[in-house]
Amino acid sequence: MKFENKVVVVTGGARGIGAEIVKHFLHAGAIVHILDKDIADSSNPDKNDRLIASSGDVSNAEDVKSFISHVVSASGKIDVLINNAGIIRDSVIWKMEEDDFDAVMDVNLKGPWLMCREVASIMREQKSGRIVNITSRSWLGNFGQSNYSSSKGGLVSLTRVLALELARSNVTVNAVAPGLIDTPMTRSMKPEIYDQLQSAIPGGKAGTPADIANAVTFLASDEAQYITGQIIHVDGGKSIGANV
Ligand SMILES: NC(=O)c1ccc[n+]([C@@H]2O[C@H](COP(=O)([O-])OP(=O)(O)OC[C@H]3O[C@@H](n4cnc5c(N)ncnc54)[C@H](O)[C@@H]3O)[C@@H](O)[C@H]2O)c1
User: What pTM, to 2 d.p., does this model score?
Assistant: First the structure.
């Protein structure tokens, strides 16, 4: 898959899955813009003149507006948007604070909505574009994640709605739903919880950020032009639902 001269935006691209997505697009020749709230902590080793990193919060409408106008004035267009930034604040509902619900909804659902609202008008004018949202297998329901699972379920619905709204503009909108992936986010869990989640996967092992980046670059490619409104689970079979 080739992305020479394509302009790609990745939110949360400083580390974890986002950093790997950035690496894959850079390797395929793209110009990549990152929006991340912790850009200083960037673990992305690629010091590359096709990589432009900006600091900002996806859930803040002003940050999103000024970032997108910066991308357009620097690179002239946006071919691909990857909504990857996300957070967890897990707890059973009877112990969860209202703030834990609001914070997760703001970053995981409102953030992609704000990004899509800005980018949709640009892609409609261009009459081309690709949007890939990073949801989660947990949209099917996960114990202790009433906030996170709901935000990712909302992102599935947003993906399907925007696929309809943007189809006539030659813009595809899809989502990738990762299962357990080995990143700083999941390593922030208690080790015994991580091990328990890992052993519940049919193949018994977590995925890697590269497993997600491969699916994302395919959905963003010219080759995927007739795929829209789809949710691709990249989860080692966990979403099948039955396991021994
Ligand atoms: N790791 C997994 O197992 C897994 C599974 C399913 C879905 N996901 C999803 O994949 C995405 C990436 O997860 P990860 O594991 O790489 O997480 P991570 O915590 O390792 O990285 C997330 C990145 O997003 C950035 N970010 C967080 N809030 C932000 C905000 N408000 N504005 C801008 N940037 C912000 C962080 O600074 C960080 O660089 C998330 O949407 C997550 O929900 C991850």
Answer: 0.97
